Amino acid sequence: MRPVYRRSAWTTLTGWGMLLSAAGAVGCVLWGVGPYPPLVTETGLAALTVVFAVAWIAASLRAPQHTGLPPDKGRALVWLVAWLVPLATMACFNLGFMVSPEYGRETERLEAARYGQYSVTVARLAGGPIRGHNASDEPVYFETDLVLRIPYDSGPREVTVPKMYTRYEPPKAGTRIDVYCAPGDPRPDSPVLEDGRRWGTGVIGSRMLIITLFPVIFAGAILTGTLSYEMPRGARRFTPPVHLPALGILLLGLLLLLPTALGWEAGGLARPAAFLSCVTPGAALAWIWRSSF
User: Using alpha carbons only, how large is the chain's radius of gyration in Å?
Assistant: First the structure.
């Protein structure tokens, strides 16, 4: 008995729509389109992927049957799948380092007010210098409560900053010291910090991106060669035992990412759930590969 498969224009349209919307969601995450939660664009594209997946299943069940083997794999499909899986894994991993909505909004507000490191004048000492206890071969340092004159856009303002660090000698009135502040911030409680460097918003600014980039390049190259050499023909046509478990695995990954993407606290489990979702893209591909032959 000759094999049969189902195919129509709708299966092609919905199948490519599913893959391209998933690629769009991954690309938006890695590019940092949403600098902090809620990630509206990314979540919307992920939801569109699910809609296309359901439509692909429905279109496949209604498509006319064709006799013979399914058409051979296309090069575009091989490249898209080979790179989408490791990139999706990297996106899930880096989402585990996404900042909270509150931190993101505060960072955005401060950056708009030109937040950065500035040299400001010591107006006076607010307390006696306290000499620190360092090892004998390290420089002497002092911690002092200082009143600093900050040149805000609305006019100079004096701000008390506790435990400012100075080496060798205690600070004196009239000297200059480096602090982090936002001159354009009109709030009276605008932060003035000795070390106020902030964690970058958006995954593209994450320090973890460079760490995950090289494994992704390696995995993408390996998958491209493997899938180009041997990609099961049945992987392109809907088969319930093949594709339904794989789609279930991917849906589980999306559910694990939702608390992070939408900025939910989730009882402190959002970050571990995002890290756990890293295994789902590879697991789904492995299931399809294993069950398609």
Answer: 27
CA 288 vs CA 232, 236, 263: distances in Å: 9, 10, 32
Average pLDDT, integer, range 174-200 = 92
Which residues lie closer than 8 Å to 154 by C-beta, 6 or more apart? 186
**Would you state the pLDDT for residue 3?**
64
CA distance 56 to 184: 52
Q: What is the tens place of the pLDDT at every residue in 28-78?
A: 998 888 889 999 999 999 999 999 999 999 999 998 877 666 666 668 888
Phi, psi of 113 (to 5 degrees): -100, 20
Instruction: Determine the pLDDT at residue 215.
Output: 86
- What is the pLDDT of the chain when averaged over all its residues? 87
What is the model's pLDDT at position 228?
79
- Cα–Cα distance for residue pair 180/159, rounded to 1 Å: 12
